[in-house]
Design a protein that fits this description.
The protein is 80% helix and 0% strand. With 299 residues, it is mainly α. It starts with a helix and ends with a helix.
């Protein structure tokens, strides 16, 4: 019972410490407050995070301040959260909730086993607490990065179609601004919704559409959108003809997407061969092991 008492005492101490931090929050220094006043406001982000109301958010919300003090989430992970349209507070709350659940779940199972008269050695619940707590702490990072990579790839595919639509509209005599808006209005899906939101933000704030696209490319970390914004900026300010460059860029993006799809298919094919090799090795061991034991026993 000693490891169980230690875990319960640690959980009680963490709860009291979190309550004290919530009741008496730390005050920022004066220099930080002055720098906030003098810093110019950032442009309104195109990507917007959403807060869920699940059990994990409610359970882990008291611990978000502690994780914020530890410097979480990092810069790259903040960009991935913006791509997945999740707020950092919801992400930190989910991370804290999964860590707490992973930390307390083996102890709860051990209590039930003790009440049932079949306790486990204290090393097993302790190792389970540590393993599940670390896994729960790292699982949201992995899922967010995978979802962000998937959305960036989908956005690149949609951007290639968007460039083709713009090329058709420009060839039909439309202007640059009209081609941008009409091409974004035609498409559907998450990527085209972000393009429409960026262009609507530029229209409402009376800024150039290529600057809004450049900001969207910065938030999504998609280099192709930067290149599109630069080409449109030349067309809008210098009068450069961009129809041919847009067609070439769309063709290059299609070739790149095809190469990436072929590489992913080859990698999946190689992974599919691994289970067959394991089964073949197991079959060989199953067939030759009895004969090998007979030979070694007769020597």
């Amino acid at each position: 019972m000693l490891p169980l008492l230690v875990l319960l005492g640690a959980g009680l101490g963490c709860g009291l410490w979190a309550t004290a931090v919530w009741l008496v929050p730390p005050h920022p220094p004066l220099a930080e407050l002055v720098s906030r006043l003098r810093t110019p406001p950032k442009p309104t982000p195109v990507l917007r995070g959403t807060d869920d109301a699940g059990w994990a958010i409610r359970l882990g919300s008291p611990f978000t301040g502690l994780l914020r003090e530890l410097g979480l989430p990092g810069h790259s992970l903040t960009g991935d959260l913006a791509v997945t349209e999740r707020s950092p507070e919801a992400f930190l709350a989910e991370k804290a909730a999964l860590t707490v659940v992973g930390l307390l779940l083996p102890g709860t199972v051990e209590i039930l086993l003790v009440l049932g008269g079949r306790p486990l050695p204290w090393q097993m619940p302790l190792a389970g607490c540590l393993a599940l707590a670390v896994g729960g702490f790292l699982l949201p990072d992995v899922t967010v990065r995978q979802e962000a990579a998937r959305r960036r790839a989908a956005f690149r595919h949609a951007l290639g179609a968007y460039l083709d639509l713009m090329h058709v509209l420009l060839a039909g005599g439309a202007g640059v601004d009209g081609a941008l808006t009409d091409a974004a209005a035609i498409g559907e899906g998450w990527a085209f919704r972000q393009l429409r939101r960026a262009l609507n933000t530029a229209r409402l704030t009376r800024s150039s559409p290529w600057s809004a696209l450049a900001q969207l490319g910065d938030e999504l970390q998609v280099a192709e959108l930067f290149e599109l914004a630069a080409a449109l900026s030349l067309a809008g300010t210098e009068g450069a003809r961009v129809r041919a460059s847009l067609a070439a860029k769309a063709a290059a993006m299609r070739h790149r997407a095809g190469a990436e799809a072929e590489g992913a298919a080859n990698a999946a094919t190689e992974r599919m061969a691994l289970p067959g090799m394991v089964m073949a090795i197991g079959f060989v061991v199953f067939v030759f092991y009895p004969a090998l034991t007979q030979i070694t026993a007769s020597l």
